[in-house]
Amino acid sequence: MVSLFGRFRGGYMKILVCISQVPDTSTKIVLKDDNTAINNQGTTYIVNPYDEWYALVCALELKESGTASDIHLITVGKADVEPVIRKALALGGDEAIRIDADSNDPFQTATYIAEYAKSVSYDLILCGKESIDYNNGAVGAMLAGLLDIDYIGFATDIQINGSSVIVKREIEGGEETDACSLPVVIACQKGVAEARIPNMRGIMAARTRPLKAVTPVAVDPVTEILAYELPPAKAGIKLIEADNMDELVALLHTEAKVL
Questions:
Q1: What sign does the dihedral 96-100-101-107 (CA atoms) show?
Q2: In the chain, how many H helices and how many E strands?
Q3: What confidence score (pLDDT) does residue 177 get?
Q4: Angle of helix 106-117 relative to helix 139-147, nearest 10 degrees?
Q5: For residues 92 and 193, what is the distance between their CA atoms, to the nearest angstrom?
Q6: pLDDT tens for residues 69-107?
């Protein structure tokens, strides 16, 4: 395979970390336009936890160990995502790239990132196993396919030795160990790194680190969101006296639902 990526040399590895903006799990989601869009007024957005806690921190650990030299962060979104990418920069990273486009389609998002990655010699691309909003976990695999490089998902441990990568990944009922050569796209999950929080020094430094906006390539989405649907409202809680077992049993038979 002829790679578009540079040949890795120890200590000079360049890492690209994919960052996505997602609604905070504690925020109240309000729909608009006949349930076809999310009302951003009052909605709090955060860095996708799988991208922040695992993919980015894994990259930082590789740099701190002397394995990597440069960490770039990339996201797809308009100017309103810049506070989120700045927050990721506060954890670490040398510069950030924002692909100036709106996209809810994983293929379109992956294509935007792939076209930029082709212009830079990245040896390793890290992302979270999925975003907590759409939960499809598709961008990483599509990105690898578009770049014609290997992909490993659900990584819980990453070891790099020269140009070789050993990855432990979670599979149904157990664990699998995979080996491949750089370059590679790896989707990370819990276990691959310990979550961190930005310190004041990192927050201040993030204000001056480079963040450049890039014009996206022309690519049509392959999926379309027709409508959103909120989950049903939670029912009230019934409290039963500890000594009233007959009522508890009756309610379990008549009102309890098996999920």
A1: negative
A2: 7, 13
A3: 97
A4: 40
A5: 14
A6: 999 999 999 999 999 999 999 998 899 999 999 999 999
Structure tokens at 30: 């309000």
Identity at 75, one-letter amino acid code? T
Residue 137 three-state SS: coil
Q: Rounded to whole angstroms, how far apart are CA atoms 58 and 197?
A: 14
- Other beta carbons less than 10 A from residue 49's beta carbon: 15
Cα 44–Cα 235–Cα 34 angle in degrees, nearest 5: 50
The sign of the torsion formed by the CA atoms of 4, 142, 117, 199 equals negative
> Among all chains, which residue has been given the structure tokens 């976990």?
137
**H or E element that contains 169:** strand 164-171
Domains of the chain, earliest start first: 13-233 (3.40.50.620)
Classify 47 as helix, strand or coil. strand
Q: Identify the three-state secondary structure at position 85.
A: helix
Task: Extract the tokens encoding 37.
Answer: 């869009």
Q: What is the residue type of 149?
A: I
Q: Phi, psi (5° rounding) for residue 236?
A: -70, 165
Torsion sign over Cα 247, 251, 253, 258: negative
Is residue 155 over pLDDT 90? Answer: yes
